[in-house]
Specification:
single chain; 67% helix; mainly alpha; 110 residues
């Protein structure tokens, strides 16, 4: 797993839509067992989600506690995504992420 994740993350931005979709299915499974390994790659994951790879948003709640600051830096960009999602599970993952962020940030709750 340690060797496969860096390679898998690199394929997110290679331009091959099919490969990107397959990697996006693989990474949430990896995040279940190894969120600490995936948290190292939060920036490319966020970039991919913001770029339209919405299914990959499902890993963000799982790695949030391991890399809060990096995700919070992009929360406004991520907040614009739910209306664009066609899959309910992608929207729910983002809403779960927003709940985690709100729980950590007193300014958001007021």
């Amino acid at each position: 797993m340690r060797e496969a994740l860096p390679v898998a993350v690199k394929f997110l931005h290679k331009g091959n839509r099919e490969l990107c979709r397959n990697v996006s299915c693989y990474l949430p499974l990896a995040a279940i067992e190894n969120p600490d390994l995936l948290a190292k790659y939060v920036q490319p994951i966020i970039d991919s989600v913001i770029g339209g790879n919405y299914p990959l948003a499902r890993v963000l709640p799982q790695i949030y506690t391991l890399n809060r600051e990096r995700i919070q830096e992009h929360i406004m960009a991520l907040a614009s995504i739910p209306p664009k999602c066609t899959d309910t599970n992608d929207k729910l993952a983002l809403l779960q992420l927003f709940t985690l962020v709100a729980g950590d940030n007193a300014l958001v709750r007021t």
